[in-house]
Every structure is written in C-alpha cells, then in structure tokens.
Design brief:
- With about 240 residues, the chain is an alpha/beta fold.
- It folds into two domains: about 70 residues, no CATH class; about 120 residues, HUPs (Rossmann fold, 3-Layer(aba) Sandwich).
- Helix content is about 50%, strand content about 10%.
- It contains nine helices and five strands.
- Strands 3-2-1-4-5 form a five-stranded parallel sheet, sandwiched between helices.
- Helix 4 links the parallel strand 2 and strand 3.
- The N and C termini lie far apart (about 55 Å).
C-alpha cells in the first residue's frame, strides 16, 4: 500500500521539479551564442507578421502580442511538422499556432495558415506564394522566430525574398528564463549550437546570405561541440 501512495507523489514532484540550470562550466559560451543570434532589430509596423513554426509556442504568443500592439494587420503562421514537433503539434505547427492565437482573441479573419513547409526556406517561399495567391501586397514583414533562430531566419529570408523589408523579433526573455519556459536545458543548448553551425553552412550551400561570425562566437561554438552538444548538427 505504501508503494502505491508514494509513487504518484514522486511523479508529481518530478513534474513540478525545476528545469536543470545551464552548467556553470559552459554558461559563458552558451550566453555568447544566445547574444549572437539576437539581432536587436527595432520594431516598426509592417504589412504582415509571420510566425515561424517550431516546438516553441512562445512564437505564437509573441506574434499575438505584436498584433495587439498594432505592428501588423495580418498574421501568417507557417510550418508543417518535424520529428521534434509531431507529438506536441500533431495537426501541424502552423495549425496549432493559429489555435493559440484564436484562444487569445485574435479574429480568424486576421490569420492565414501555411501548413506545408518543413524548413525555413520553405517557410518564406510558401508564405510569399500564399500572400500572392490572396492578392496581398507585402513590402515589409515582421518575422517572428525562436530567439536563437533569429539570425538564420533573417539570412534565409533575405536570400529567398530579398526585396521585402525585413524586421526580426522573438520573445524578450533572458536566457535562463527561456530555458525554464522550454523545460529542457540540453535541448536549448543543442538548438543554439545547431543554429550557429547553420549560419555558415547554409550560406555556403546557397540557402542563405552570408553573416559575419566573430571569432569569439566560433570559439564558444567549438567549446560546446567539444562538450558534446552535437545532436542538432548537420553534415557539413
């Protein structure tokens, strides 16, 4: 009997346990990559707000906050599924983002959904096609992503849709708060490392425009790879 009573308590305690913190031995390196990907663009009104799909529902929340702030009259949520999101968003990332926005009071008439894209280049290309099909002129776009995806999203969008005026934004959370919101410190660090690698690799492959990568960022990236944060790396 004691076993049956204590097991539910143990499971509840595990669910409520705080997310492990960033290990101190690598904190400075993680912070350096985090700061590098934050483009710090000044927000300004745009024709369309685009929320890039992924595992982070905070993207949808930030899009809603910007919509309410009057930064754009139309939202496009873009994204199908990936192995890392299919369990959480079985109907597709963009579909679940739309549902989140509707739950928060955004009118359905202000939301368009692009449900096919499976990478950032497709996010941008299919969004452009969607807007063109609707006869919507888009000279400026406020592109919302996960914080560590900003730089890659910018570089990709400038390659795919160079004529559009681009502003990038993400939820304004300090690194530790973001880790807590995601609930998985290793996932955040691996994603940071993977996106840092992609900035250079994707530019070489012609998927994105080139971005400057300072030597201290390269050093931080190398330290984290050596420390074993390699699950999101692509073959170069």
């Amino acid at each position: 009997m004691a076993r049956s009573l204590t097991e539910p308590k143990a499971r509840k305690a595990a669910m409520n346990a705080p997310t492990p913190a960033i290990p101190e031995r690598i904190r400075a390196h993680v912070q350096r990559l985090w700061d590098y990907h934050d483009l710090r663009h000044e927000l300004r009104p745009c024709d369309v707000g685009v929320g890039l799909g992924g595992h982070d529902l905070g993207v949808a929340d930030h899009v809603v906050d910007l919509y309410r702030g009057g930064f754009f009259p139309l939202i496009v949520f873009t994204g199908a599924n990936a192995p890392t999101t299919v369990e959480r968003f079985p109907r597709g990332e963009a579909v679940h983002y739309r549902e989140r926005a509707l739950d928060r009071g955004v009118p359905d008439s202000a939301i368009a959904v692009e449900p096919r894209s499976t990478n950032t280049a497709e996010n941008i290309e299919y969004t452009r096609e969607l807007l063109a099909a609707k006869g919507i002129r888009c000279a400026s776009m406020l592109l919302v992503s996960r914080p560590y995806q900003q730089r890659r999203a910018f570089a990709t969008a400038k390659k795919i849709w160079p004529e559009v005026e681009l502003v990038c934004s993400s939820q304004r959370l300090p690194l530790d708060e973001y880790v807590q919101s995601i609930g998985d410190v290793n996932r955040v660090i691996n994603m940071l490392v993977g996106d840092t690698q992609r900035v250079e690799v994707y530019a070489r492959r012609g998927f994105a425009i080139a971005q400057e990568v300072p030597s201290e960022v390269k050093e931080a990236y190398a330290h984290l790879v050596e420390a074993g944060y390699t699950t999101r790396l692509v073959t170069d």
